[in-house]
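Batch manifest line 306
LIGAND: S-adenosylmethionine
JOB: complex structure
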Amino acid sequence: MTAVGFLAPEGFEAELRHELARAEVTVTTEYGRLLLAKGPALHPAWAQNIWYDPVELPAESIKKAARRLKEIQRNWALLPTTGHHRRAALIAEQLPHVSAKPLVFPAQPPRAPLGGWTLIAPERMLAAPTTASLFPHGEVTFIEDRIGPPSRAYLKLWEALTVLGVYPGAGERCLDLGAAPGGWSWVLHELGAEVISVDKAPLAESLQGLPRLTYQRDSAFGLRPQHIGPVDWLFSDVICYPSKLLELVRRWMEAGTVRNFLCTIKFQGETDFDTQDAFAAIPGSRLMHLHHNKHELTWIKLESER
Ligand SMILES: C[S@@+](CC[C@H](N)C(=O)[O-])C[C@H]1O[C@@H](n2cnc3c(N)ncnc32)[C@H](O)[C@@H]1O
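JOB STATUS: finished
ARTIFACT:
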């Protein structure tokens, strides 16, 4: 069993702890929202990043600490955890610069692997030479568009597509459920796709009259796949109980008319771990907590990953 560090998104440490306990992974130490465990390198949905093989190293001086890290590899992201911030910042200044500039969408994600480190005591650091995400702490940030999209929900879709490296484009048919006021529909239309936006509420005025967008005032749960026909993508950002979304997804999967799915599972009150597990068990799919997700997870199933 090797050591592994799981980084919880801010405010969701309890979710990560619970998910690890369900997977029978024992947390041995916690440094802020970084949970250390011995165990298989599973990828919990509530981990925003994973530190592989973290080790404790001496940090007897700023120079020596930086040299030790540089000897292991080049690119490091400092995770502020348990204080010692000034000293940690001084060590970080001695390390090669790693760009963490907000991306301009659509963008290529960085390619260089990234290590993670933190100062756990004034003269002791914890360092993992590789982490699961190419973004510091799994945080994908963008230069925001404050004019085009009618809501900030577009950032979730920007992030999901950037992480996947897949962009629905010209000639692709996208069904956007729970589309209002229209952030996701705006993203998809901007990418050149044909969009069918469905919501019980109206879209923002700015989206009305877009050439490749059709709005249908309807409940997402009343729609029947045969009435819509084949689609390349089914998106859902509908506010509903997770179990209701699961029923909807199963219905559309059974119909066999959808190539790719990208859905937000929104939790109300307690996290519904049973439904989370049911989503995670759908073959060829993945479940993740995006940096722009709140108390919700993003479930994705791509035809190319079957
Ligand atoms: C978080 S908002 C979606 C934001 C949207 N993705 C965007 O980018 O602007 C959730 C939406 O779900 C819609 N909704 C709730 N129940 C619905 C249902 N049964 N059918 C369709 N839409 C529903 C709400 O009207 C609301 O517009």
